[in-house]
Design brief:
Distance between the termini: 51 Å
Number of strands: 7
Mean pLDDT: 94
Order of helices and strands: EEEHEEHEEHH
Low-confidence stretches: none
CATH superfamily: Gamma-glutamyl cyclotransferase-like
CATH architecture: Roll
Structural class: alpha+beta
Strand order of the largest sheet: 1-3-2-4-5
Strand content: 25-35%
Number of helices: 4
Radius of gyration: 17 Å
Amino acid sequence: MFGYGSLMWNPGFDFEVRMGARAFGYRRSLCVRSFVHRGTPERPGLVLGLDRGGSCRGVAFKVREEDRLEVLDYLRARELVTKVYLERHLPVALADGRQIKAIGYVVDRVHAQYAGALEIEEAARIVQASVGQSGPNDAYVRNTVAHLKEMGIRDAWLEGVSSHVEALQADAAVACAS
Protein backbone atom coordinates (compact mmCIF):
# COMPACT_ATOMS: atom_id res chain seq x y z
CA MET A 1 0.00 0.00 0.00
CA PHE A 2 1.24 3.53 -0.76
CA GLY A 3 0.34 6.43 1.52
CA TYR A 4 0.93 10.09 0.68
CA GLY A 5 -1.25 11.93 3.24
CA SER A 6 -2.81 10.95 6.56
CA LEU A 7 -2.42 7.28 5.66
CA MET A 8 1.33 7.75 6.33
CA TRP A 9 0.92 8.55 10.04
CA ASN A 10 -2.56 7.16 10.63
CA PRO A 11 -2.85 4.01 8.51
CA GLY A 12 -5.59 2.38 10.59
CA PHE A 13 -4.39 -1.16 9.82
CA ASP A 14 -1.68 -3.55 10.98
CA PHE A 15 1.40 -3.90 8.81
CA GLU A 16 4.68 -5.82 8.80
CA VAL A 17 6.91 -3.16 7.25
CA ARG A 18 6.63 0.61 6.83
CA MET A 19 9.25 2.18 4.56
CA GLY A 20 9.84 5.49 2.84
CA ALA A 21 8.89 5.32 -0.82
CA ARG A 22 8.41 7.40 -3.95
CA ALA A 23 5.50 6.87 -6.35
CA PHE A 24 6.15 7.82 -9.96
CA GLY A 25 3.72 9.45 -12.37
CA TYR A 26 1.72 11.16 -9.61
CA ARG A 27 2.16 14.10 -7.26
CA ARG A 28 0.57 15.03 -3.93
CA SER A 29 -2.00 17.76 -4.57
CA LEU A 30 -4.67 19.62 -2.64
CA CYS A 31 -7.05 18.91 -5.52
CA VAL A 32 -10.11 17.22 -4.01
CA ARG A 33 -13.12 19.27 -2.93
CA SER A 34 -14.31 18.13 0.49
CA PHE A 35 -18.07 18.41 1.00
CA VAL A 36 -18.17 16.66 4.37
CA HIS A 37 -14.96 16.36 6.41
CA ARG A 38 -13.30 19.71 5.64
CA GLY A 39 -16.11 21.66 4.00
CA THR A 40 -19.75 21.63 2.98
CA PRO A 41 -21.52 21.45 -0.38
CA GLU A 42 -22.09 25.22 -0.11
CA ARG A 43 -18.46 25.94 0.87
CA PRO A 44 -16.23 22.99 -0.08
CA GLY A 45 -12.83 22.61 1.48
CA LEU A 46 -9.78 20.95 -0.09
CA VAL A 47 -8.09 17.66 0.77
CA LEU A 48 -5.20 15.75 -0.73
CA GLY A 49 -5.24 13.54 -3.77
CA LEU A 50 -2.61 11.95 -5.95
CA ASP A 51 -2.82 13.77 -9.27
CA ARG A 52 -1.04 13.06 -12.54
CA GLY A 53 2.51 14.23 -13.09
CA GLY A 54 5.83 14.13 -11.31
CA SER A 55 6.48 11.95 -8.32
CA CYS A 56 5.45 11.83 -4.69
CA ARG A 57 7.41 10.92 -1.58
CA GLY A 58 5.35 8.92 0.87
CA VAL A 59 5.31 5.60 2.67
CA ALA A 60 4.86 2.02 1.48
CA PHE A 61 3.31 -0.55 3.78
CA LYS A 62 3.71 -4.30 3.55
CA VAL A 63 0.87 -6.22 5.13
CA ARG A 64 0.75 -9.87 6.07
CA GLU A 65 -0.73 -11.99 3.29
CA GLU A 66 -3.43 -13.28 5.63
CA ASP A 67 -4.47 -9.64 6.36
CA ARG A 68 -4.41 -8.46 2.73
CA LEU A 69 -8.14 -8.74 1.96
CA GLU A 70 -9.17 -7.23 5.29
CA VAL A 71 -6.80 -4.28 4.77
CA LEU A 72 -8.05 -3.77 1.21
CA ASP A 73 -11.65 -3.78 2.45
CA TYR A 74 -10.74 -1.21 5.10
CA LEU A 75 -8.91 1.02 2.62
CA ARG A 76 -11.70 0.81 0.07
CA ALA A 77 -14.23 1.84 2.72
CA ARG A 78 -11.96 4.71 3.79
CA GLU A 79 -10.84 5.98 0.38
CA LEU A 80 -13.63 5.12 -2.04
CA VAL A 81 -16.65 6.51 -0.18
CA THR A 82 -17.52 9.18 -2.78
CA LYS A 83 -15.58 7.49 -5.58
CA VAL A 84 -13.37 10.56 -6.12
CA TYR A 85 -10.34 8.22 -5.89
CA LEU A 86 -9.45 5.32 -8.16
CA GLU A 87 -7.57 2.28 -6.86
CA ARG A 88 -4.39 1.75 -8.90
CA HIS A 89 -1.16 -0.28 -8.85
CA LEU A 90 1.52 2.41 -8.76
CA PRO A 91 5.19 2.11 -9.68
CA VAL A 92 7.05 2.78 -6.44
CA ALA A 93 10.71 2.97 -5.49
CA LEU A 94 11.39 1.92 -1.91
CA ALA A 95 13.98 3.65 0.26
CA ASP A 96 16.18 0.55 0.00
CA GLY A 97 16.24 0.85 -3.82
CA ARG A 98 13.78 -1.89 -4.72
CA GLN A 99 11.15 -1.16 -7.36
CA ILE A 100 7.65 -2.48 -6.63
CA LYS A 101 4.00 -1.98 -7.51
CA ALA A 102 1.90 -0.71 -4.62
CA ILE A 103 -1.81 -0.13 -4.29
CA GLY A 104 -2.60 3.55 -4.09
CA TYR A 105 -5.56 5.84 -4.54
CA VAL A 106 -5.37 8.50 -7.25
CA VAL A 107 -7.85 11.26 -7.96
CA ASP A 108 -10.45 10.75 -10.66
CA ARG A 109 -10.09 13.85 -12.83
CA VAL A 110 -13.64 13.58 -14.21
CA HIS A 111 -15.27 13.39 -10.76
CA ALA A 112 -17.28 16.43 -9.62
CA GLN A 113 -15.04 16.75 -6.53
CA TYR A 114 -11.87 17.20 -8.59
CA ALA A 115 -10.70 20.78 -8.13
CA GLY A 116 -7.83 20.63 -10.61
CA ALA A 117 -4.55 22.49 -10.36
CA LEU A 118 -4.99 25.57 -8.20
CA GLU A 119 -2.68 28.48 -7.59
CA ILE A 120 -1.36 28.71 -4.02
CA GLU A 121 -3.37 31.86 -3.30
CA GLU A 122 -6.65 30.37 -4.54
CA ALA A 123 -6.14 27.13 -2.60
CA ALA A 124 -5.30 29.14 0.54
CA ARG A 125 -8.47 31.25 0.26
CA ILE A 126 -10.58 28.07 0.00
CA VAL A 127 -8.76 26.36 2.89
CA GLN A 128 -8.94 29.42 5.13
CA ALA A 129 -12.72 29.74 4.70
CA SER A 130 -13.81 26.08 4.96
CA VAL A 131 -14.97 23.97 7.89
CA GLY A 132 -16.49 20.48 7.83
CA GLN A 133 -17.50 17.68 10.18
CA SER A 134 -13.85 16.86 10.95
CA GLY A 135 -12.97 20.47 11.68
CA PRO A 136 -11.42 23.48 9.98
CA ASN A 137 -9.72 22.93 6.63
CA ASP A 138 -6.73 25.04 7.70
CA ALA A 139 -6.08 22.65 10.62
CA TYR A 140 -5.99 19.74 8.15
CA VAL A 141 -3.40 21.51 5.99
CA ARG A 142 -1.25 22.62 8.96
CA ASN A 143 -1.36 19.12 10.46
CA THR A 144 -0.41 17.55 7.13
CA VAL A 145 2.53 19.92 6.62
CA ALA A 146 3.74 19.31 10.20
CA HIS A 147 3.57 15.52 9.81
CA LEU A 148 5.33 15.63 6.45
CA LYS A 149 8.14 17.74 7.95
CA GLU A 150 8.46 15.32 10.90
CA MET A 151 8.92 12.53 8.36
CA GLY A 152 11.57 14.52 6.47
CA ILE A 153 9.27 15.15 3.50
CA ARG A 154 9.14 18.65 2.09
CA ASP A 155 6.24 19.69 -0.12
CA ALA A 156 6.94 23.26 -1.22
CA TRP A 157 3.51 23.83 -2.78
CA LEU A 158 1.57 22.58 0.26
CA GLU A 159 3.87 24.53 2.58
CA GLY A 160 3.15 27.60 0.44
CA VAL A 161 -0.59 27.08 0.85
CA SER A 162 -0.16 26.74 4.62
CA SER A 163 1.96 29.91 4.83
CA HIS A 164 -0.52 31.84 2.72
CA VAL A 165 -3.40 30.67 4.96
CA GLU A 166 -1.49 31.99 7.97
CA ALA A 167 -1.00 35.34 6.21
CA LEU A 168 -4.71 35.55 5.37
CA GLN A 169 -5.59 34.80 9.00
CA ALA A 170 -3.14 37.43 10.26
CA ASP A 171 -4.63 40.01 7.85
CA ALA A 172 -8.13 39.10 9.06
CA ALA A 173 -7.07 39.46 12.71
CA VAL A 174 -5.60 42.91 12.00
CA ALA A 175 -8.76 43.97 10.17
CA CYS A 176 -10.93 42.83 13.10
CA ALA A 177 -8.75 44.69 15.58
CA SER A 178 -9.06 47.93 13.60
